[in-house]
Amino acid sequence: MVLAKPENQHVLQAFSVAGKVAAVTGGARGIGLEVSRGLAEAGAEVALIYSSSAYDADAIAASISADANGVKCRAYRSDVTDANGIAATLQEIERDFGHLDIVVANAGIVSYHNAEDYTPDQFSEIMRVNLDGAFYTAQGAARIFKKQGRGNIIFTASVSATLVNVPQKQAAYNASKAALVHLAKSLAVEWVDFCRVNCISPGFISTDMIATQPAEWNQKWYSMIPGNRFCDAYELKGAYVFCASDASSYMTGANLIIDGGYTLP
Ligand code: NDP
């Protein structure tokens, strides 16, 4: 088994994802939307995968395309907790675009409960989306990548995989993300001859997800982040393009932490 080795190229060329096709779960909102935008700006054709009926994902895909010089971008509705459904969606994307090179398993949810009060459904719902759903997405991708002999999987994990946010109330979320980081390492080894698998672990990113947390927690968290602010989702675009491109060709099983220094003290 040998990790794929690209030709030595000019560094800006190595960072390009032009001509590649990327699928991004949770790709129409928050971090995933900016990842979709970043990959399109860097030249990739993008399939954004969403699950909600609350907005017009086709219009979002059209605006990404318009902002990125008309690069192809299309929206696909699929629930990551449906293993057959997400695998079929990835196959549909491969058929529509002709190939599939990059899959970002980014969809995720959070909820806040005292650990002693979790119902089995509340606990397993977090696991179903954040861990099982990410695995089903990666598995669907790997079946295509194995056939092609190349591919790239990026999981959105979290600093919650590494430490416990205080105040707590996120036991299930923390456990799901810690498991995801170890899953990525396992898959990176097992699938090394046909794809790379890496995690990006953001700190506090201003999205709808952060908006659901109790407001009084924000001030406490600002004081615990050396950077003293939350991050805007667009500030993550470069990291995802790096992981998706040949610029990171020797990186697999890694967990890239982007947190304004939050996990350092
Ligand atoms: P948002 O709440 O803005 O977005 C969550 C995304 O996940 C949505 O696009 C949603 O799709 C999608 N999603 C949820 N459940 C499913 C499902 N069953 N099937 C398909 N898609 C689903 O949150 P963020 O953008 O902040 O979160 C994105 C990822 O980043 C998550 O994995 C999260 O855990 C992680 N993260 C976020 C941090 C933050 O501070 N915001 C910090 C660290 C990690 P739809 O739009 O269709 O509802």
TrEMBL record:
Coiled coil: is it a keyword of this entry?
no
A Gene Ontology molecular function term for this protein is:
oxidoreductase activity, acting on the CH-OH group of donors, NAD or NADP as acceptor
Sorted UniProt keywords: NADP, Oxidoreductase
Is Ion transport a UniProt keyword of this protein?
A: no
Which InterPro entries is this protein grouped with? NAD(P)-bd_dom_sf (IPR036291), Sc_DH/Rdtase_CS (IPR020904), SDR_fam (IPR002347)
Entry-linked PROSITE patterns:
ADH_SHORT
Name any one Pfam family assigned in the record. adh_short_C2
What family, per the record?
Belongs to the short-chain dehydrogenases/reductases (SDR) family.
User: Protein name, please?
Assistant: Oxidoreductase-6
Organism, per UniProt?
Answer: Coleophoma crateriformis
